[in-house]
Amino acid sequence: MLIFYGWWIVFACFVISLYVSSIIFFGFTAFFEPIVKEFGWSYTQVSFATSLRGMEMGIFAPFLGFLVDRWGSRMLMFLGVITVGLGLILLSFTQSLTMFYISFILLSFGAGGVTSIVTMSVVANWFDKNSGKAFGLMASGFGASGLLIPVIVWLIEVYHWRPTLIFLGLGMWLLGIPLCFLIRNTPEQLGLLPDGQSPETVLSDRQIPEANMTFREALRNKSFLYLNLSEFIRLMIVTAVITHVMPYLSSIGIPRTTAGLVAAGIPLFSILGRLGFGWLSDIYEKKYIMAISFFLMGLGLLIFAYVQSWWVIFLFLLLFPPSFGGLTVLRAAVLRENFGLSSFGKLLGILLGVASLGGIIGPPLAGWVFDTWHSYYSIWLVFAGSVGLAILLVLKIESPKEESSQKT
Question: pLDDT at position 206, please?
Fold first, then answer.
């Protein structure tokens, strides 16, 4: 039995996402101390590069959404792979703080071409009934990136940080360019249909008209607003927790070695949710699975506020990372189901742009609370309360089936 070609698309996106996120998002922390030691820069100056990445993606994400709808994912992924490799090599030649920031911005732009908006757009084109599973498998690449972090640390210790960046840049080209040639923007390019279905199966399975709103119609739709606000809340909380997990645990007496394991465990445990909730969303109504995910995320955050022993930390890892990992899959699945494919890239770009604003606000807000009250306790409780608002917003999203019944 031949494997449906769409799964090869998922595989290519999985591997590229794993490689890029392991370097730029989860693994870049390994470069901090060597860079600070060589240049004498402060942690604030080096950390500002990650803020530049967040602000850049907030501005660039909607624009990237327009590009993917116009040019397709294959071209953007190819350009992204080339730019990421170039950015890593350029970063290895850094001699000043300005050059460091410029290199990181270039790196971030390249990463934008090979991550969420572009990869989710092409997967959305290839899958309909199995979109949740496909999104979940593809997004697991981000979680699995935690496995490469020890390799990056070892490369830095053995070869120094500059050669390591060159190795990683060349690896991006050697790995990413061949995978880009696997990408096809739509199944129709190969004479196929989404999910590998036959035309007869598609017609018999389609009980209600597929949602396919225009861009302007979607912008005026309240469900799109609710989805954006819920994603803003999610990323505000997630980025705050990921950024402050080690200082928070240290502040309450947890050893730094244990805190480091928790930080590494967060992306790995998120795989459970990316796969599990993606699978469930293909069986049950997506917005209810999304609401359950938010509930578990809030529960995990409450447990995080009362961490006192290792088993409580383990319970946090079983709840918080899988739930936020699942939500990254569900946002795309809900967007595809409710608004269709004609403007998927543009709408996903706006969704991620709005979410990134929450990602910019969350970490400094948590830091300010700790600086003011010398405790993270209150901000975790406030964030847990905001999850309740996100649940209400998600439940107000109207599915195509609900909208169809209201019209009849």
Answer: 47
User: What is d(CA 360, CA 244) in angstroms, rounded to the nearest whole number?
Assistant: 13
pLDDT at 208: 43
In the predicted model, residues of the chain with pLDDT beneath 70 are 1, 29, 43-44, 47, 50-59, 198-212, 399-408
Radius of gyration of the chain (CA): 21
7-186 and 215-398: identical CATH topology: yes
CATH code assigned to 215-398: 1.20.1250.20
Separation CA 62–CA 66 (nearest Å): 7
pLDDT at 61 (0 to 100): 74
Which CATH code, of 3.30.450.150, 1.20.1250.20, 3.50.50.60, 3.40.30.10, is assigned to 7-186?
1.20.1250.20
**What are the extents of the domains in the chain?**
7-186, 215-398
Nearest Cα residue to 172 out of 116, 89, 109, 99: 89
From 302, 308, 306, 303, select the one nearest 254 (Cα to Cα). Answer: 308
What pLDDT score does 379 carry? 93
pTM: 0.76
C-alpha–C-alpha distance, residues 63 and 286, integer Å: 27
DSSP, collapsed to helix, strand or coil, labels residue 84 as helix
pLDDT in tens, 173-217: 999 999 999 999 999 888 888 888 766 555 555 444 455 677 788
Helices first, then strands: H and E counts in the chain: 18, 0
Any residues with CB less than 8 A from the CB of 337 and at least 6 apart, and which?
A: 131, 211, 286, 399, 400
**Cα angle vertex 161, ends 157, 165, to 5°?**
125
- Torsion over CA: 80, 82, 87, 89 (sign): positive
- What one-character DSSP code corresponds to residue 211? P
CA distance 367 to 168: 32
Alpha-carbon span 162 to 75, nearest angstrom: 29
Beta strands in 273-375 (DSSP E): none
